[in-house]
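Quick one: structure for this chain?
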Amino acid sequence: MLESLHVKNLALIDEQEVLFHEGMNILTGETGAGKSIIIGSINLALGARADKDYIRTGADYALVELSFSLNEQQCALVREMELPIEDGNTLLLQRKIMPGKSTCRVGGETISATQLKKLAPCLLDLYGQHEHQSLLKPAAYRKMLDDYIGEKAKKQKVMLKSLIAEYRKTAEEMEAQTADEKERAGRMRLLEFEAAEIEAAALEPAEDEQVEKKYRRLVNSKKIKEIVYLVHGLTGYDEEGSAGSAVGHALRELKGIGSADEEALPLIAQLTDIDDLLNDFNRSMADYRDSLEFDEEEFVSLEERLNVINHLKSKYGGSVDVILASLEERQEELEKLANFEAYMEQLKDRAQKQKEEILSLCGSLSLLRQKAAKPLSKKLREAMEDLNFKDVRFEIAVTPKDEDFTADGYDQIEFLISTNPGESLRPLWQIASGGELSRIMLAFKTVFADKDETDTLIFDEIDTGISGKTAWEVAKKLGRLSKDHQIICITHLAQIAAMADGHFLIEKSVRKERTTTSIRALAKEESLNELARLLGSGEMTKAVLENAKEMKENAKNVKA
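Got it. Here's what it folds into:
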């Protein structure tokens, strides 16, 4: 429920805070006092369009804060949206309006307009002076009937949405394939050429990497070979001044003194090891040299292969794997085009089966609606009778339109009504007056109240166009509705105001040459005085006060 409203620098409001009650909250005041500003501020917090004209003259910004205590369903949605919830399942929603921009926060975290649009309907339901106009739109009737059916209708519509998405995908595929024969033949020739070009290359997976590696090696093989020959000569035994011949010469000389001096023997052994190692190294270099024989034919072959691969890469993708995948795609498309008639027949068969499934599901949904239409019609008629439609007749017509299916099914839903004896049933949008629509909407609200996920319902001047006994019937209906919901209602009628659990007075005054709108909670005696004023008495006589007390007592009995 809505715990509190805090408004600052908005229109005629300087700064006000309202703490709302459970049950029925009534807002009254003289015409022009600014009652619409209070409801407007709630609307702004919930995402209504705002501009700088809302900011009070002389202020830099306007601020609206709403504090809600959430039920379990609301908490689940808020957590799903990953928004912060304070202790006690409290949610603080804040809208700050500045020249040129506005920001919205939940629990101090900025949220987007899309998030606010999703969050707002679960927090409260605001019924403004023109909300009953939705009853003039037949598109709204289907939603009302499906809301009444509940989870069964919801599940079937989810399935229907998925089936229709698949059906549309098939239809789009069929449309894409209905090009003329000349265009199709041209496409086939192009695909055949491209597929043949790729197939002729006989590519192997990752072949490009292997060929590039071999090619790089051959490109550098001449330089490598020169260095290897040089190193082999420097470390060999054939060339004068080479390491091998120098070490061999040194070893022979050293061995000549070995017999004369035993201390030379360890040095002879070390140099012998060096000679052996150098000899082994020289043989390894010879083997490496022999493996570097440059093959001109292989070099040309690799160069040509690399050119083919790079050409295909430039046309079909950046690697051999991508090129091979491209070949597979072209072969599949060629197969479709080559077997076009058979392929189109498959698509048509698939589309027909999907359509049959859709129509079957639409039929099941239609049966649910037809079954629910009668009891819902009865409940709505009884609710309207409670609101002084004494001779009302009301029916819900469900008419299947097989070829006109959507994700909501194929039914055309019409609300038919007759408010006067002897008149035939006619569509609601054709005959109901503004005052009647207001009461009809309230009847609908009471019937659907147990299906509302929101605890808070706001009614802005629902009493438009009614008086007398009808006004009392509307008051009783609102009073009963307030037993299970928090109601916030702006009214001009004493009958409705008498139902208040919390009564607030909206006043306009001039302070320091500035007009200001304020709102304050009324004590019991003040509420009786306001009821007396609403009864239309210019003077606060004892009789008028007694009348107000009696009305208050009657309201108490109704709610009990």
